[in-house]
Amino acid sequence: MIELKSAEEIDRMAVTGQFVGELLAELSGVAAVGVNLMDLEHHARRRIAERGAESCYWDYAPSFGRGPFRNVLCLSVNDAVLHGLPHDYVLRDGDLLSIDMAVGIDGWVADSALSFVVGTPDPADLKLIEATEVALEAAIGAAQPGGRIGDISAAIGEVAHSYGYRVNTQFGGHGLGRTMHEDPHVSNTGRAGRGMRLDPGLTIAIEPWLCRSTDQIKVDDDGWTIRSADGSRTAHSEHTVAITAAGPQVLTRRPAEQAAPAEPGRKSAAAS
Question: InterPro entries annotated for this entry (predicted)?
Answer without folding.
Answer: Creatinase/aminopeptidase-like, Pept_M24, Pept_M24_MAP, Pept_M24A_MAP1
